[in-house]
Design goal:
With 364 residues, this protein is of the alpha/beta class. The protein has one domain (10-362): Alpha-Beta Barrel (TIM Barrel). Helices cover 38% and strands 16% of the residues. The protein has helices at 40-54, 57-73, 92-103, 135-149, 166-179, 196-200, 228-234, 259-273, 279-292, 311-316, 343-362, and strands at 10-12, 15-20, 76-81, 106-108, 112-113, 156-160, 183-187, 209-212, 223-226, 248-250, 300-303, 322-327, 330-334, 337-338. The strands form three sheets. Strands 5-6-7-8-9-10 form a six-stranded parallel sheet. Strand 3, helix 3 and strand 4 (106-108) form a beta-alpha-beta unit. The radius of gyration is 20 Å and the shape is globular.
Length: 364
């Protein structure tokens, strides 16, 4: 097809980000860590857990709105989000959902429960599997339950096995079964979570979303969310998704939501591991994500490239650009910008919210 400007275009269904952290959209420009991280867990403590703790409902809203806007501009119409904000748990999922709805992007949200924050608000360096569930973890489960019972599209979230007691893992599994949804959990992302497989083996179900799986030592039921860019950035290793029996989907782990670009990186990382693989493998992962979020199939992304739907073209073409996006037959992107919200205004207000967020981080 040809648009009115004479440039060649093609159309695909909406893209799906199968694992996002919308709360990280305001991380850009945040204060540098106070020391050099010596391990993955140390990096979480120095950077990401400080960001989590600094968020309030207002910054959560603006971070989600900026993240949703950038997702829409990249043709990503559906986001499976994993959220944490220990000092702003109640109402956090509603803020994320509202922000995404205003932009016109679909979201499936969860609150990632953890026992790393004690009842006195102190961060625990290590959590024992035998310890009791904290009040913060209980409040996180209640936030998931409240969101889903109110009609929100959601899952039950868990940060990771290494930051949760057995009691909390079991409570999350029980809640998910009672609500008829899956559990969205980081699994064996780094060496710090080597026991995840053993601790989750009796709990995991086919509707669970297992994120990373880089160091997973056994088969677990569920979908595997592969995040190659994040894994490379954190130096945790390669997940070798083609060696797993699970259906594989792609996520960004909070580093934007340009899933076309994520798929290209996933392909070259896969080829580095196994040169017999072709772009069709990664195209299958993208298709799996649409199975996981079927509403994406009814969405429509028009690209400024005549063969965007061709896996072999998409894998090697970095110049594809989104011309327009329709979600639920409603235009949310046209001529390269959003239609339902003012892009400049969102970026301006998000920048102001980021400055306040970073100031709070400095005091933690």
């Amino acid at each position: 097809m040809t648009n009115t400007s004479g440039s060649m275009t093609s159309t695909t269904p909406g893209l799906v980000n199968a694992h996002h952290h919308l709360y990280s959209a305001l991380a850009r420009g945040m204060p540098a860590p106070r020391a050099t991280a010596t391990s993955f867990a140390h990096m979480l403590e120095l950077v990401w857990w400080r960001l989590d703790a600094a968020h309030d409902v207002d910054s959560i809203y603006w971070s989600a709105k900026l993240g949703a806007l950038e997702a829409a501009l990249a043709g990503t119409t559906c986001i499976i989000d994993h959220h944490e904000s220990p000092n702003a748990i109640e109402g956090s999922l509603e803020a994320i959902t509202r922000a995404c709805e205003e932009v016109g992007v679909r979201v499936r949200a969860c609150y990632g429960v953890t026992d790393r924050w004690g009842d006195n608000g102190v961060l625990h360096q290590k959590v024992s599997p035998l310890s009791t569930m904290t009040k913060a973890a209980q409040r996180g489960l209640e936030e998931c339950e409240r969101h889903i019972k109110a009609g929100g599209d959601g899952m039950v979230g868990v940060h990771a096995a290494f930051s949760c007691s057995n009691e909390t893992l079991e409570a999350a599994s029980e809640l998910a079964q009672r609500l008829g949804v899956g559990v969205h959990i980081h699994v064996a992302e780094a060496n710090d979570d080597l026991q995840a497989g053993a601790r989750l083996a009796h709990l995991a179900k086919d509707n669970w979303l297992l994120v990373h799986g880089v160091h997973l030592d056994r088969e677990l039921a569920g979908w595997l969310a592969h995040n190659p860019r994040s894994n490379m950035n954190n130096g945790v290793g390669y997940a070798k998704p083609t060696t797993r029996p699970n259906p594989v989907v792609l996520g960004s782990d909070g580093i934007g939501a340009d899933m076309a670009e994520e798929s290209r990186l996933a392909y070259v990382r896969l080829r580095e591991f196994d040169t017999s693989q072709t772009p069709d493998t990664v195209a299958g992962w993208m298709h799996n994500a649409r199975r996981l979020f079927p509403a994406s199939e009814t969405d429509e992304v028009t690209w400024r490239y005549p063969a965007a739907e061709n896996a072999w073209h998409a894998a090697f073409t970095t110049a594809m650009r989104v011309e327009s996006v329709k979600v639920n037959n409603q235009l949310v992107v046209q001529a390269g910008t959003t239609t339902r919200v003012d892009e400049a205004e969102v970026r301006h207000k998000a920048r102001a919210a980021a400055q306040r967020l970073h100031q709070r981080m400095e005091s933690l």
